[in-house]
Amino acid sequence: MRCGWLDNPTPGNASLYDKDGEWTIAVQGGHQATGDWPPAFKPGQWVNSGQGSYGYGCVCLTVEVDAEEKNILNILSGKARPLSACRKDRAIANIEKQLRP
Prior knowledge:
Radius of gyration: 12 Å
Structural class: mainly beta
CATH architecture: Beta Barrel
Shape: globular
Helix content: under 10%
Distance between the termini: 27 Å
Number of strands: 7
Largest sheet: 7 strands, mixed
Order of helices and strands: EEEEEEEHH
CATH class: Mainly Beta
């Protein structure tokens, strides 16, 4: 299980940022993790980037990974978390600054 910021800035591009760094979920025209993502976000749990439904939120994902390449291969399950959970986590709190539109 990996918990952190799910960033989905544009179509076909997504990453998870956790205590171990950036994990690639999808790259437009390239790697695409299998599984059901993103999880459902309640109002106030997703920060819209201003372009459609794209943006970022805080999640925990149960995943299969390629640790060497830092790719998420398969998302087995996922759960949205309050933004405050990631904002309070010292290992990842500062990452939000680079995700903001």
